[in-house]
Write a structure and sequence with these properties.
Helix content of chain B: over 70%
CATH topology of the largest domain in chain A: Rossmann fold
Order of helices and strands of chain B: HHHHHHEEHHHHHHHH
Strand order of the largest sheet of chain A: 6-7-8-3-9-10
Shape of chain B: globular
Number of helices of chain B: 14
Shape of chain A: globular
Number of helices of chain A: 10
Largest sheet of chain B: 2 strands, antiparallel
Structural class of chain A: alpha/beta
Strand order of the largest sheet of chain B: 1-2
Structural class of chain B: mainly alpha
CATH architecture of the largest domain in chain A: 3-Layer(aba) Sandwich
Number of domains of chain B: 1
Strand content of chain A: 15-25%
Number of strands of chain A: 10
Helix content of chain A: 25-40%
Order of helices and strands of chain A: EEEHEEHEHHHHEHEHEEHH
Number of domains of chain A: 2
Distance between the termini of chain B: 41 Å
Oligomer: heterodimer
Radius of gyration of chain B: 20 Å
């Protein structure tokens, strides 16, 4: 599904990522973990076209997408969420999700402004599609609220609903459980499993180990910009290198 | 949706019957200007209020529309109805081409670039004397004619201008509530999130910049054909700032706000004429007070003030 090979990122004199390679299988939930400063978010920013890497390639479903801007990746059915949720704060919850339908609609500026018949029927389709995703994430009742006024947990659900509206085949989530209480985290893990059941491949960066071990099929561990280990949750938990990286080596 | 349509219909009826309620040729003339300024404020608001991109050069696009219409109809004997769309298309294409490089800039840098653009256009109007008549202006621009009616009086011009203004308002209201309008607001709120969802922010900004220039050009053509005389002084930097003030005072991201801002800033100098030399001080003072106490603009400030007054009345009633 997603092939990352030899990704290297150098900021000034600092090597944030050093030839990181791994691949993600279709339909899996893959966790990317590692101590602070391991380069997880940098890696996400490179995969999703927000940063341009120093070296290395990204392949999506066999197609080389290295250096593609985010809007092109969205059209290739790859979408992401952010660690500090990036909502459209002045717009309503429903409108936020409707923006997610952007690539699934095509009326141009003039067609919209002149209310052409096809743009009216498209608008109806966008609204219905957006409502469907609000139902899926369970925030239908908030549809007319301003997104900026949502509590953090609901905002996170909205960001996921909005990403799903794009119709992704792969979704990357940057610390989806950050800032959530234990109840919300539990609900999130169920939601992520339901998203996987839709056939969507999921990659997540996460610090909540309980969540990661519970839902991930595979885990990639990064440390100091290098890939330290890759495997099933059990293999990772039993790996001495990983334990050393997290807890420190006492040789 | 229904509410929007009702509001627009009500507004249109009010505009249609305003000449019957108000008397005096001079007032009609001022209301013609309110219409033209409303179009311009809406054009700038699409860019600033929705897409979040500033322009300090919009008077330039307004002027280009006016001069292209003026030159095409006087020197080249174009029919005004042909000259208007030709001017609009030329200005739109120009804005699109300029927009691609300069909309890469953000914030203050974009303000500087558009400011420079406006100044360059202004200098061209002044210096290309054989074409534009230079500082002394271009006269003898024909009035528009439709089915034997020549739009040469204030009342006729009122209906002409407001017909176009209402069309521009409806156009913009539709746009604002469409996928394009939502994408613009999304880019304004979080550009990176909009891009991740598949919105081509760069292209969208250029498109709206060009559309905004087209509306400004149209307003310019209408201005030229109703005034029959134009000179560079009307299209300088000052006017760009005045347009910006209309948008901010009226309310960012609101089509009706643009009307309120345009109406206030056009009528205020006329109302203050009685205050002689103090008019400019009162004018400036009022603007400062309004920005301080109505940061959301008139369109949000007036309803808030109204609610406050009602509440206060209710409280004193109980006491």
């Amino acid at each position: 599904m997603l092939e990352i090979s030899g990704i290297t990122q150098i900021f000034g004199g600092v090597t944030a990522l050093d030839t990181v390679s791994f691949s993600i299988a279709k339909g899996d939930i893959t966790g990317v973990i590692g101590p602070n400063g391991a380069g997880k978010t940098t890696l996400f920013n490179i995969i999703t076209g927000i940063y341009r890497q120093t070296a290395g390639t990204v392949q999506l479903e066999g197609k080389d997408v290295t250096g593609f801007p985010p809007e092109r990746l969205a059209r290739l059915a790859m979408v992401r969420t952010f660690q500090n949720i990036e909502l459209f704060g002045t717009m309503t919850v429903l409108e936020n999700v409707m923006v997610g339908m952007h690539t699934k609609s095509s009326s141009g500026l003039l067609a919209c402004a002149l209310k052409m018949p096809w743009s009216i029927s498209e608008e109806r389709r966008i609204r219905e599609g957006a409502m469907k995703w609000l139902e899926f994430t369970g925030i239908c009742d908030l549809a007319d609220h301003t997104a900026g006024s949502l509590p953090f947990g609901k905002g996170r659900l909205l960001e996921i609903a909005r990403a799903l509206a794009v119709g992704p085949r792969i979704i990357l989530m940057d610390e989806p459980a950050a800032g959530l209480n234990s109840q919300e985290t539990l609900a999130l893990s169920l939601l992520i499993k339901r998203i996987r059941d839709l056939g969507i491949t999921i990659v997540l960066v996460e610090h909540d180990m309980e969540l990661v071990m519970d839902i991930c099929d595979r885990i990639v561990v990064l440390n100091l910009g290098r890939k330290l280990k890759e495997g099933t949750p059990r293999e990772i938990q039993e790996s001495p290198e990983v334990i050393a990286a997290y807890l420190g080596d006492d040789d | 949706m229904k509410q929007n349509l009702l509001l627009f219909t009500g507004f249109s009826i009010l505009i249609m019957f305003a000449p019957q309620l108000l008397s005096g040729g001079y007032l009609m003339n001022v209301l013609v200007f309110v219409g033209i300024n409303t179009m311009l404020a809406i054009a700038l608001n699409l860019l600033l209020g929705y897409a979040g991109q500033i322009s300090l050069g919009h008077a330039g696009f307004f002027g280009l529309g006016a001069y292209l219409s003026g030159i095409l109809t006087t020197a080249y004997r174009f029919n005004p109805w042909v000259a208007m769309p030709v001017a609009a298309v030329v200005v739109g294409c120009m804005a699109g081409m300029i927009g691609f490089p300069i909309l890469k800039l953000k914030g203050h840098y974009l303000a500087m670039a558009t400011l420079g653009l406006g100044i360059i256009i202004f200098i061209v109007f002044n210096e290309t004397v054989e074409l534009t008549g230079g500082p002394s202006g271009l006269s003898g621009i024909p009035n528009l004619q439709l089915a034997g009616i020549s739009f040469d009086s204030d009342v006729k011009n009122y209906y002409l201008i407001w017909g176009f203004t209402l069309a521009v308002m409806l156009f913009s209201l539709n746009l604002a509530n469409s996928r394009i309008g939502r994408a613009l607001r999304a880019v304004h709120d979080s550009e990176v999130a909009a891009q991740v969802l598949g919105v081509n922010a760069r292209l969208l900004k250029v498109q709206i910049f060009a559309m905004s220039a087209v509306i400004s050009s149209l307003a310019g053509s209408l201005y030229a054909h109703t005034m029959t005389f134009i000179s560079p002084a009307s299209f300088g930097f000052n006017f760009s700032i005045e347009l910006l003030t209309m948008v901010v005072i009226g309310g960012l991201g609101s089509v009706y706000g643009s009307f309120l801002g345009a109406a206030l800033l056009t009528l205020l100098p006329e109302i203050l004429r009685g205050a002689n030399d103090y008019d400019i001080i009162i004018y400036g003072g009022l603007l400062i007070v309004m920005v301080m106490f109505m940061p959301g603009g008139l369109v949000r400030g007036i309803p808030a003030l109204y609610r406050k007054v009602i509440k206060q009345k209710g409280e004193t009633g109980h006491a």
